Amino acid sequence: MWNCTRSKRDAYSLVGLSRTLRPMVSQIRICYKRFISPLGIRGLFLCFLLPVFLFFVVDFFAPLPVQEDYSTLVFAEDSTTILHSFLSKDQKWRIKTELSEINPQLQKMLVFKEDKYFYWHWGVDYTAILRAFGRNIWYNRRTSGASTITMQVARMLDRKPRTYTQKIWEIFRAFQLEFYYSKNEILQMYVNNLPYGSNIEGIKSASLIFFQKKPQFLSLAEITALTIVPNRPNSWEFGKKNQEIREARNKWLKKMSSARIFLLADIQQAIQEPLQVTRQTLPQHITALATDLQKNNPNIHEIYTTLHPEKQLRTQEITQQYVQRLANYNIHNACALVTNNHTNEIIAYIATADFADKKHKGEVNGIKAVRSPGSTLKPFLYGLAMDKGKITPKTMLEDVPMNFGAFSPENFSKDFKGKVNVENALISSLNVPAVQLLENIGTKNLIALLKNLHFSQIEKDEKKLGLSLALGGCGATLEELVSGYSMLANNGNFEPLKYIQTKKDKTKKSKKLSEKTNILSPETCYLISEILAQNQRPDMPTSLLNRLDLPKIAWKTGTSLGRRDAWAIGYTPDITVGVWVGNFTGEGINNLVGAEIATPLLMDIFMEILAKKDNKNANKSYSDNKLTKKNSEWFTAPGNIKVRYVCEESGKVPNDFCENQIIDLHISAVSSAQKCEHLQKIFVSLDNKIRFCQKCMPLENEYKTEYFAKISPALRAFYADEKNKYPAPPPHNPKCNVAQLEGFSPRITSPLHAQSYIIPIQNPPKISLACQVADDVHEVHWFLNGVLYKTISAKENLFFTPQIGKLNITCTDDRGRTSKIWVDVVAF
Description:
- By secondary structure, this protein is α+β, with helices and mostly antiparallel strands.
- The chain has 26 helices and 27 strands.
- Strand 12 and strand 13 form a beta hairpin.
């Protein structure tokens, strides 16, 4: 090999140059004569095929290790605000960058600085390699590199110590890259893998972490700084070496000035720009939701959600501050969900008040957690009954002690109201009327409605559910409840909630409409909304009674058995908000009541979301405009909603004897038009001491007509226990033969009066309830300890499982005649 150890001074002279090149030319001539000339044209052709063949062989056994592992970013609905970020699998901040995101100035700067002939060579710049090789040997040290952008990408993809052997391997990898990828794709790989020290790789990662902006928004000075740091990523660290980076940046800017890459004025302005940056952390605000989205979209590195950035952060702040105030009550967790009813998109998603609160299981996603919904299902139950025409807002129901088999519901207040209309029963969240209503319309019908609303746990437990479903005896999530209430706000049309933005495509409009499912009629939804929007209600928290700035909201609260869950869910035509408050540990708290604990948080969020925005705000988003467009409006009554007078005592169409009439809303051709029968006409003596039937009517001047209330046995028993006196009809004419034949009270034949029944504690047997009744009796009502157990046909057999202790048994027929016994149940 030729000698390259001449002096520097000699090498710069023409004589020295000739002395240097003469051995090289001689060696090339010798190689040609010995190896190439004898081969001829065929030999040269074979020499060309052999490298190509070897390339494909090596390529087959050593494919390119292309980097596909990127960080994941979750954006808000403005497609700019980052709500959450994840490291790549190898714990790097390596954010995927599309070449279209790179500022053209940045692309021009990179190519000028790193590889001027990038678009002209096949991955390797041979002149640069020879130049660098010669200089390194001449100075006996590494003085300059010869890596093209393609070769640098090859080195980034396969990081190994830099040696001459590794350089040869990089050249092969560069050929592979050029063979499989276009220049733009290679440049994109380059900008995605540039090192910036620590665990930061890629221009977009550095741009977001150091400058808090995307690459396309960088200034010329910032662009230049990002292009020089990868040359010395471990020594030039943003925040610590800003001055050194700035000096190096300005040198390159001056070089670009000489090369006329950019306008002189732009370069001078960039030189004057200060460099005051430090490493910032990328946001991580929605860990629970972002984790689910990343899991469900593993191949997507930028997820664009429907969350409103300001409303998300503000709702999170409100929820966190509220939970901090509840810590004194030993209540530590809460979650909230806000949806846009016009688009069914999620606006705010607060899965937990404080994800970092490991002590109280703050990492739990409360929105997805299955819990007892309490009374929050009652609007769906009442809506179903309205759709079936069984009730209207003024229909009277009975709130009295009842026993539905082994199920004896009680109200939260532990008392009963007697007769109550549908409006008061729903807003007061009375339990017995709800269970009666569910028994009337059928549990299967309510389950079918909830299944259509995608209540997944109810679908799983369908065969296990009974009448307790009306009181929340099932499992549901906050997401499912908010989705269901959003259906009420959308005229009964249900559509699953959306978390991820969808492309606006008019051709898919018909398909989108077909995805909606009609659950309830618009008329029923309007009636339910009007009931739930009343402010004069017993579940209004005392702290909100005097608030005059509360918007009109249809809302419902709920408290689970054991006071483990406090719910409050409300809606307007624009948004639906749902909150849950409690402990993720499942601990019950005496103060944990939906009305008092969950409702204030619900109202705080509503006040924040519906707050009027400044119309001059140029940054107002599409969702802001959509939400504030109709804030002052309420639901419009459908044309099929009609007004009518009904009897105040029954809520039915007035009869001739109905004196007190009130206004009620009903659904035309759907709501029942049955006339009121709360009174019965009875013929009595002039002194009101006896009554007559058609068989024993006296002379016309010896009797008169009176109206008496028709009261059910359960209500009669309630009035008796409450010592409420009501006008009762006098006894039947004792001289009537019909009365003697048919007028005797039921005679209880089983169990036996005043007897003791000894039963085992485990698996106790059932005891028969039987009686003899008069021929005119069709139904009998059985009461156990004053509570209605069951109403059955007079010919039907009935069995019950007794409770330990003294048991009072009452049987009442449909004529109002009653018999009572007692038994003593003893356990062994």
